[in-house]
Amino acid sequence: MMELVNQQEYQALVNQISNTYEVGRQRAAQAVNTHLVNTYWEIGQYIVEFEQRGALRAAYGKRLLEQLATDLTIRYGKGFSRSNLNHMRSLYITYPICETLSHKLGWSHYVELLKTDDPLERSFYEKQAINERWNVRELKRQKKSSLFLRLAASKDKDGILQLAKQGQQVAKPDDIIRDPYVLDFLKIPEPHHYTESELESRIIEHLQHFLLELGKGFAFIGRQYRITLGNRHHYVDLVFYHRILKCFVLIDLKREEAGYEDVGQMNMYLGYFENEENTEGDNPPIGIVLAKEKDELLIQYAMHNVSSQLFVSKYQLYLPNKEELRAVIEETLDE
């Protein structure tokens, strides 16, 4: 490199060009993605309108898609399988107004969303994928874990409709709480006599999946976070910071049932963090006792006059029963 070039200024130039290029490349990819989704929507429109002018029989539509797939594949190669053409058709039927399609979601997102028949459930996952910037893999994971059904099962009719319309909004502590938390990604077989230490270690090994289960806004701070009171050491299993709520989130793991002593211990942790760890601008910390089982009545009394920032939730190591959750939601909506 020429001696006349100031190294610091040159490096700044390289960084400036790199940043501009990366932003431009992302915008270009987003623009291509938006045009691709809109193009597939138009193709779906052409197919539906053509079908409506012909025989309205299922066999007719199937033969039409098969013939289109053959002819368009000969002309363009990949991208026009019968399955993909059927997705384009479904896209137009499900989203009859093109402007309702989000430029923040790709074609693969919409293919995954179209697999969900229930409009409320589909709307939730669409909004949540936009809000939390899920990639397709994360979207599949959240659908598989029945996130909408788990959140909706604890809400009233208005809450369910709002959840479907806006996604999960985070404005107060209980907005980040889930009950149960689904930890199937830990791959702990049942029955298996694991220890709390093993449970914690597996969560750390699968931290990315655990953060996805926790939801938007969580940043990992540490494990076995030591606090000292009266020359005695205590350890919080997992500590996070929530960027949106601007507070620490403490999680204490329990292998079996949560007891009243676990509530008292977490309440102590919350008091310590609020007085010793919080800095200017931090809100009061949130505590979650995460246990395999809980006695609702016992927990109710144990939490009498205890901080409203403290929650006791269950976790499960397997995927939830979707039909049972749907039945609860349908009953609520019928009311």
UniProtKB/TrEMBL annotation:
What GO MF terms are annotated?
A: nucleic acid binding
Q: Where is the YhcG N-terminal domain?
A: 17-150
**Mind telling me which InterPro entries this protein's record contains?**
PD-DEXK-like_domain, tRNA_endonuc-like_dom_sf, YhcG_C, YhcG_N
* Residues of the YhcG PDDEXK nuclease domain: 175-326
Could you tell me which Gene3D superfamilies the record lists for this protein? Answer: 3.40.1350.10
An example Pfam family from this entry, by short name, is: DUF1016_N
In Swiss-Prot or TrEMBL terms, this protein is called DUF1016 domain-containing protein
Source organism per entry reads: Parapedobacter pyrenivorans
Upper taxonomic lineage: Bacteria, Pseudomonadati, Bacteroidota, Sphingobacteriia, Sphingobacteriales
